[in-house]
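Module 6 notes. Inverse folding takes a fixed backbone as the condition and produces residue identities as the prediction. Think of it as a translation problem where the source language is geometry and the target language is the twenty amino acids. Below is one complete input and output pair. Work through it position by position during the lab.
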């Protein structure tokens, strides 16, 4: 590396190596316009020292929104589910870009970010959870900007976003669960409730379940795809990698699924060329996905009929986990059935059940040792 002279302008310039980027590509820093060779040498030594100390920051006028929509989203595109990426793009376009559109990435402060959160809460009337989702985008994007040497530190790291109040978990006991199943067994969507309360599957997983995902010989089903919350898109993936799982079915559920398959074949035959074959276990008369809202309407109506406490559909999943853990089923097994990414998620979520489980285990162990 050395300093060069621009013979036409009479000024000096240099190119310095800045190592390699995250993709292993060689990076170079070019500076020109120095009046003397000595001045150019001094600047080159300064830059090389910053590179060695890992504190070099690019001299850039990059707009934050351009970085967000370009480099950052590109880096996330291959890692995120389509639905998650769509949510990120919506939040960037709808909320982040209009507020920060004029700001260079290096001029954004922690105070500006916190004022933005206050603006979302007061002006846009967004919920704490929605602002938390936006906070995750901003925090992640500034972290990437630091890695890419656009910034020396992240202003989002210390920014305070509104805390999301945790929703109280409501579950049914065994009596309420069996009462609901009895009250709903004649309903056309009964299989959805049966699956929810015997497998702990999510609503999106139940409505995305296909016949080819069920192995009747082995008595298992494979969770491989999901239906979007609006019922308009089928995603060929699951919420997380661990959500893609195999669940053993009880004999009764297998029998009901066999009956459901017969109904499916009759529907297909009756609809003829109008039938759109998505291979869905739960579908409309034309084979298309069920709108999740219709499932929820039926769910709320059946809860009244069964005279059980009103809970969310997602609480059926919590009910399954709670009933399993209260019957001393190993938390690791429960974790695998629910498709949690880490057993700590299972233990933290259902910690209220574990004391009684531990107590019962201690009694059994004591009986085994001492009679």
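Target side of the pair, the amino acids:
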């Amino acid at each position: 590396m050395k300093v060069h002279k621009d013979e036409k302008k009479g000024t000096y310039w240099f190119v310095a190596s800045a190592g390699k980027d995250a993709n292993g590509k060689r990076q170079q820093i070019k500076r020109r316009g120095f009046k003397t060779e000595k001045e150019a040498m001094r600047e080159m030594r300064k830059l090389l020292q910053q590179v060695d100390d890992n504190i070099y920051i690019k001299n850039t006028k990059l707009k934050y929104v351009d970085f967000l929509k370009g480099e950052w989203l590109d880096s996330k595109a291959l890692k995120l589910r389509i639905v998650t990426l769509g949510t990120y793009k919506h939040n960037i376009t709808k909320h982040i870009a209009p507020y920060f559109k004029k700001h260079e990435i290096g001029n954004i402060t922690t105070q500006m970010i916190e004022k933005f959160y206050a603006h979302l809460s007061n002006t846009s009337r967004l919920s704490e959870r929605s602002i938390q989702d936006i906070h995750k985008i901003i925090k992640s994007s500034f972290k990437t900007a630091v890695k890419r040497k656009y910034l020396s530190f992240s202003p989002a790291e210390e920014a305070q976003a509104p805390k999301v109040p945790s929703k109280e978990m409501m579950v049914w006991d065994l009596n309420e669960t069996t009462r609901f199943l009895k009250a709903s067994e004649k309903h056309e969507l009964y299989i959805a409730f049966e699956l929810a309360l015997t497998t702990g599957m999510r609503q999106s997983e139940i409505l995305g379940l296909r016949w080819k995902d069920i192995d009747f010989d082995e008595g298992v089903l494979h969770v491989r795809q999901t239906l979007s919350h609006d019922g308009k898109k089928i995603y060929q993936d699951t919420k997380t990698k661990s959500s893609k799982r195999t669940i053993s079915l009880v004999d009764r559920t297998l029998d009901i699924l066999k009956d459901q398959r017969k109904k499916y074949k009759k529907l297909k035959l009756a609809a003829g060329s109008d039938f759109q074959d998505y291979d869905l276990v739960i579908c409309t008369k034309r084979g298309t996905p069920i709108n999740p809202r219709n499932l929820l309407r039926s769910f709320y109506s059946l809860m009244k009929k069964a005279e059980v406490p009103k809970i969310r559909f997602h609480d059926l999943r919590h009910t399954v986990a709670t009933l399993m853990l209260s019957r001393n089923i190993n938390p690791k097994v429960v974790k695998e059935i629910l498709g949690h990414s880490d057993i700590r998620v299972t233990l933290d979520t259902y910690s209220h059940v574990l004391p009684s489980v531990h107590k019962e285990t201690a009694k059994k162990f004591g009986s085994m040792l001492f009679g």
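Reference fact for the lab report: The first strand starts at residue 3 and ends at 6.
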